[in-house]
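Homework help thread (please don't just give me the answer)

Our assignment gives two proteins as sequence + structure token strings and asks us to describe the second one. The first is just a warm-up. Here they are:
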Amino acid sequence: MIVAAPDWFTNTYLGIEVEQYIGLGVLAIIATVTHFALLRVIALVVRRRYTGDELTFWDGKRRLLNRGILLLSIGITLLVGFPTLNFDPDVENVVNQATSLIAAVAILMVAYRAIDIGVAVLARRASETETMLDDSLVPLLRTSMRLFVTAVGILFVLQNLDVNVSSLVAGLGLGGLAIALAAQDTVRNVLGGATIFADKPFEVGDWVVVDGVEGTVETVGFRSTRVRTFYNSLVSVPNGNLMNAGIDNMGQRRWRRYKTTLGVGYHTTPDQMQAFVEGIRAIIQASPGMRQDYYIVEFHGFGSTSLDVLVYCFMDAADWNEELRTRHVLNLDIMRLAEALQVDFAFPTQTVHIAEMPGQSQKLPDVPDRAGLREIVNSFGPGGKRGQRIDQPITTGHESVLESPYAQADEGS
């Protein structure tokens, strides 16, 4: 048996029947229950799956979905339930379009929040890696995904508003082609940014020399890379230029080279020179910040005003400041060594030699005869007793025979 509805159900107030008011109230209750039910389900899933710090993280992130889920619940409830209330077709059409817009906005909100949650997860993982380039990629990924979701949402809304989306997309395609032809540099820069993220020639924080710019990489974007120079200016280098430019990544060096030439005075004796060279080698071996398996310290030339010692070594330093500190300590130890050996560093000088003073005869050295000269030469050759051998440094206790070059000549004459 069907019970007839009371007559007052059909009474009209403000153009709306009482039963329609009741129906709207029921839809409101359904939307509210649906909203809280969805939130409850999400909360239960999070709390069962995560604990500790992970639970705190995910519990905070899932709260970002509250408003979007509420708006989505209202939109879906009205789309499904409003047609059953028998409103006027014109009213129903307006409400249908409005609820479609509400549902689209709700979906966009949920999608935005989902993107934020995904980006937060990626950011946490990126912070645990050694490279800094993925930390720069995370915000770019967030922006790109938001732009894509926004474009899809706009098309969805327009389609629900009876706009011919196909012709619009075709028109946008032609316009996009024209824009692409006019913006080739921009496209080139974007492709350059993608290449940087794929190849990773440098990371955020690296010291680089690229395209005539030297400094520290601050940010890497899709269009340009920003480099903080050592005089604190910020230079934006187009990524398109980086595709074809040689990139010198100073930040990825395992060792930092130090090359210098030390000039000592011409009055330095051979034994002093040998001790000075070996002392610098000992300093390098004793310094924990120096590479000790490869270095070169040799007396390598006779300069115009000095005897030149080449120092070619490498430092294990994480940054430029540490490199300068290690170099500072090395240079101070070399100065202390020179002071202890009484080795004087040379500076540009000129010596005036007066062959003969007035009233005095010129004093010339006594030069040995041919036999004496031959014996001196042989003493420096194979089997001779003079000279410093490579396998006989001062540190082994070998006493090199570096007396007057005329001593043996005098003995043999």
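The one we have to describe:
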Amino acid sequence: MKRISFIEAGAPGLHIFSKFPVARVGTVLLSTILKEEGYEVKAFIEDVSTPDWKFIESSDFVCISTLTSTAIRAYSIGQRLKAKGIAIIMGGDHPTFMPEEALQYSDFVVRGEGDFTLSELMSYLDSGTPAIETIQGLSYKDKTGKFSHNPDRLLLKEEELDSLPIPDFSLVHNWKPSLLYSVSTSRGCPFACRFCSVIHIFGRQYRFKSTGAVLQELKHISSVSNGTRFFVDDNFTANRQRTKELLRAMIAEKLTSDWTAQVRTDVAADTELLRLMAAAGCHTVHIGFESINLRTLEQYNKKQTLKDIVRSIRSVKDHGIHIHGMFVIGADTDDVDMIKRTVAFAIHNGIDTIQLMVLTPLPGTPLFKEMKESGRLLHTDWSKYDAHHVVFSPSLMSAQTLQTETLKGMGRFYSWKYILKHLSKLDLHYAGIGIFGKTTVNKTLRQITAYRD
């Protein structure tokens, strides 16, 4: 039996939600697919625990998944294992858009959705069929050392999403039932935010799993854990009628353990939807507000207004659901005062937790292309492309000012007042987040002198 290790490269630094490691669904799903095809498989999530290198180095193949910010770590792992004669396969956002770079540290790159591509590649490596040039979505070097990029694979259809196995988190090394369980019920997003790479991986059209398939997965998770579920869909409420059907089914089946999800501000337009979300166990929604600056929202192509943001906050909180608000700072229309106003807005409107993320031009996005062509990229040290470091020249402030003021803004939000307010209500969860956030910000500010513009 061939042994396969999956490695999800670890993040290069701390951020406010480092305290809650989440395994990306792709790594666990692909591990499960190959396990069901008869391989001996283990998955190693570096943000969860230290990998078992003895097992990994005894593998026949190692699959490494990486984002842009974890690419340097992934390349280091690939280089180390290739030197031992192990075949390396890379996938994820960064290799999809930078396959020739990734092939310097791997033997194959699986681009885009890898559910079928990886399975076909393993069949080729085992038996020589199908012919390698017929495997869609695959990049590699041919016998002459020339890069070969097979045609892109078509995105999976909805019935194909239903046919995929339930991700088996028991394959993850040192996985604990108390950790967050990621659940994917759809793929794709019709919106086109300039800084987002999602649509370039999963397409501009929503594809949904059936309610029955989602319920089956939730029942499986409930049989092994009472921990929180995280619906990782880019917009869990994209199709409101479909979401309501799922929520009603969850309530009927008593699958109402705490869960969180990513939504857009338009969730506020449907009070029945919010009522069902609360009844079905929704604890927190993650909303990409991005900015309170109308000009910035337009520059991001966000398709929402400040009025939409305020209305969504009020409606969501009226239904007893907490809000994690995400803001992207650093557009050409942002200045230092806008950072301060953003934090004041979040505090005034009672947002429970926030992330102030630095605008980051990721490979594969229109923003990256524009920044590169205009010469505004400061470097391509991918470990700094984590939304917590400035990697381009801003328009209305220096790079170091944007870096420092964004961190200080986080510090103002996660203040002692925030911590004491939650302690006074014996809300240890949010008090703990506040302490972790404050500690992380202070630590990062002390280290910031090592990172210059």
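TA reply:
I won't write it for you, but here's a hint about the kind of observation we're looking for: The first helix runs from residue 25 to 36.
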